[in-house]
């Protein structure tokens, strides 16, 4: 394998040519035609050149766009308001399941949510080789001065009602020789706030270096994506008998108890908890991506929170008590509705318009509730008909798409497989039968 020098300096067209050549000449598959590779990559370029250059600038070494489906979940009743929720997700069944859960709860009081707190954290990690007590008194003496020195960075955020909320010196020398942190908390209003927080932290790091000289080594200044105090609780509840619905196929008390047990199992067993929470993030990630937020940050934080007592557990809880069914999610969620991609990506902007331009807190509640709804839908299927029934319907449509079935063929095949097991080969065979 040959290394290439200066790849980033090539034009976009040259990068396309490079990969087309590599696929056709150096690749395993000698049948790949370079011209076809180029044509395919170019076919995903946007016809609006200005828009295309906006997309290109989001990242580096871009050669084309990678499409993902953008769908809508209607009738999402949250805190007595009706939302249409935009979702970017490639996995079939997620939007369908969410839509069903939204409809189900829309006639049972809807979803409820509250933001418990919206505090973000950042840390300056540093080594101090001088005397511990003199560091502590330096920090106490200079705390106000440090905060005042940040004014040029914080002035706008302060005006919006945000800014630095606390600053403390943390002694971790029992874990690593001479290791301390300046730990700060922030309110970043409607911004996710990563740039703001990191700029503040770097200024604090510089203050330490300027004031403490050679005794200090700043290792790094960076926000923490673990924000347990930037958190949402969302829930649904209703009398057990109101859970009645044809698709449940059992009495409501049995359903409620099986459902609650399924949640308990995800608290007991990390293998199940991982899949359970993965389903929750099927919903959350869809909204987070659609609104131009950072799904890696949201996931990393959620998973850390799920393991906060030392074992990875469910992010949802269920109680069936005194004839009542109660199901909640308690999840950290740091999202923004200004800055970053939220204005730059035209569809992220449109998603926020569809959600009626929410504040960051409102968007956090929407995303957490979508996670709860997704988990409700998954568990409802799992403890009743099983997950494959719904999945297979969508899977069948995907297979039919791949086999280029016509609309009439699709209708006939869907009818045929209504009571049969779906597999690629079985569908291909049935389609061949039809066509012959
Ligand atoms: C599939 O993407 C997600 C589920 O496996 C979630 C779950 O099992 O709870 C259906």
Indicate the topology.
Blueprint: H1 12-26, H2 34-43, H3 49-58, E1 70-78, E2 81-88, H4 94-106, E3 112-118, E4 120-128, H5 132-149, H6 151-159, E5 163-171, E6 179-187, H7 194-212, E7 216-224, E8 230-239, H8 252-268, H9 270-290, H10 295-306, E9 316-321, E10 324-332, H11 341-344, H12 346-354, H13 360-382, H14 388-402, H15 407-416, H16 424-435
Bound molecules: (R)-mevalonate (MEV).
(R)-mevalonate binds at residues 91, 275-276, 278-279, 282, 378, 382, 387.
How many structural domains? 4
Number of helices: 16
Question: If strands are numbered along the chain, what order do they take across the biggest sheet?
Answer: 3-8-10-9
Low-confidence stretches: none
**CATH class (first level) name of the largest domain:** Alpha Beta
C-alpha end-to-end distance: 47 Å
Tell me the CATH architecture of the largest domain: Alpha-Beta Complex
Gyration radius (Cα, Å) is 26 Å
* Strand and helix order: HHHEEHEEHHEEHEEHHHEEHHHHHH
SS-derived structural category: alpha+beta
What is the β-strand count? 10
Q: In CATH terms, what is the fold-level topology of the largest domain?
A: 3-hydroxy-3-methylglutaryl-coenzyme A Reductase, Chain A, domain 2
Main sheet, how many strands, which sense, barrel?
4 strands, antiparallel
CATH homologous superfamily of the largest domain, by name? 3-hydroxy-3-methylglutaryl-coenzyme A Reductase, Chain A, domain 2
Mean pLDDT: 95
Keywords: NAD, Oxidoreductase
Catalytic activity: (R)-mevalonate + 2 NAD(+) + CoA = (3S)-3-hydroxy-3-methylglutaryl-CoA + 2 NADH + 2 H(+)
Protein name: 3-hydroxy-3-methylglutaryl coenzyme A reductase
Pathway: Metabolic intermediate metabolism; (R)-mevalonate degradation; (S)-3-hydroxy-3-methylglutaryl-CoA from (R)-mevalonate: step 1/1
């Amino acid at each position: 394998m040959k290394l290439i020098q200066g790849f980033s300096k090539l034009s976009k067209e040259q990068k396309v040519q490079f990969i087309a050549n590599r696929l056709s000449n150096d690749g395993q598959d000698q049948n790949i035609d370079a011209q076809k590779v180029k044509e395919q990559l170019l076919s995903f370029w946007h016809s609006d050149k200005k828009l295309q250059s906006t997309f290109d600038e989001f990242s580096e070494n871009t050669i084309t766009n990678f499409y993902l489906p953008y769908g809508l979940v209607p009738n999402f009743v949250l805190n007595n308001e009706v939302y249409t929720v935009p979702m970017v997700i490639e996995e079939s069944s997620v939007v369908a399941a969410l839509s069903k859960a939204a409809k189900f709860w829309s006639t049972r009081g809807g979803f409820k949510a509250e933001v418990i707190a919206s505090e973000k954290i950042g840390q300056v990690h540093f080594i101090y080789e001088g005397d511990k007590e003199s560091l502590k008194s330096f920090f106490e003496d200079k705390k106000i001065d440090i905060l005042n020195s940040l004014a040029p960075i914080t002035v706008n955020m302060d005006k919006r009602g945000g800014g630095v909320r606390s600053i403390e010196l943390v002694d971790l020398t029992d874990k690593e020789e001479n290791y301390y942190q300046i730990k700060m908390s922030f309110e970043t209003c409607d911004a996710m706030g990563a740039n703001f927080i990191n700029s503040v932290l770097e200024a604090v790091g510089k203050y330490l270096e300027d004031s403490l000289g050679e005794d200090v080594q700043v290792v790094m200044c960076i926000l923490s994506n673990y924000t347990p105090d930037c958190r949402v609780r969302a829930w649904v509840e209703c009398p057990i008998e109101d859970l009645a619905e044809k698709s449940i196929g059992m009495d409501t008390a049995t359903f409620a108890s099986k459902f609650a047990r399924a949640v308990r199992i995800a608290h007991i067993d990390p293998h199940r908890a991982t899949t359970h929470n993965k389903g929750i993030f099927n919903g959350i990630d869809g909204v987070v991506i659609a609104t131009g937020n950072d799904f890696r940050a949201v996931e990393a934080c959620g998973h850390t929170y799920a393991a906060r007592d030392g074992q990875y557990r469910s992010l949802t809880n269920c109680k069936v008590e005194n004839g009542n069914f109660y199901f909640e999610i308690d999840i950290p969620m740091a999202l923004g509705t200004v800055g970053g991609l939220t204005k730059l990506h035209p569809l992220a902007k449109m998603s926020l318009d569809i959600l009626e331009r929410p504040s960051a807190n409102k968007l956090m509640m929407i995303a957490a509730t979508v996670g709860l709804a997704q988990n409700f839908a998954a568990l409802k299927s799992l403890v009743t008909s099983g997950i494959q029934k719904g999945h297979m319907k969508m899977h069948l449509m995907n297979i039919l798409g791949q086999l280029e079935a016509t609309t009439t063929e699709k209708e006939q095949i869907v009818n045929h497989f209504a009571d049969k097991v779906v597999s690629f080969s079985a569908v291909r065979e049935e389609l061949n039968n039809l066509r012959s």
